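Minutes, methods subgroup
Present: GH (chair), OT, SY

1. OT presented the first of two proteins processed in the latest run. Sequence and structure tokens recorded below as shown on screen.
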Amino acid sequence: MHVSSLRNTIMSKEEIIAELKNIITPYSEETIALQSIDDETDFLKDLKINSANLVDIVLDIEDRFNIEIDNDSMAKMLTVKATVDIIENKRQENAG
């Protein structure tokens, strides 16, 4: 499911992680870590993504999931689990 915007689509956690993997892949050369991405994957330590690219990833996430991520939330988006939680929360806010 590679869609430009996933506005009102109900997604499982696994589907969100799959979309995240698609977004993250161009920014990381850690192919083994990308293949085994899970809740505990750390963007900086495991995927070796620098902070400038992390901002680009957040912008891509906003576009893909049609959400807005505030600075406080962005600062917490260091692991896959934290990022999925924020995406789910923001999508629920938009749905309500």
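2. SY then presented the second protein from the same run.
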Amino acid sequence: MDDNLCLASAVSKYAQVLVDTLDQMAPIKSRLITIQSNASWYGDGIRLQLKKGLEESLGASGAGLNLNVID
């Protein structure tokens, strides 16, 4: 039983060393990705129709959404 505990402890320490090394050598970086259409056919008219359609489908409640993100 003692051998299993020793092995489990060694595996746990090894895994933690790997995680620490990875965090130090290649830390996680967060990025903000903004998706915007650059298509020539996607103009202000389509954008306004989309926004109007969303406003109508959500009704008066607005469902807590900020429709200005469509602009």
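Chair's summary of item 2: The chain has a mean pLDDT of 79.
Next meeting: continue with the remaining queue.
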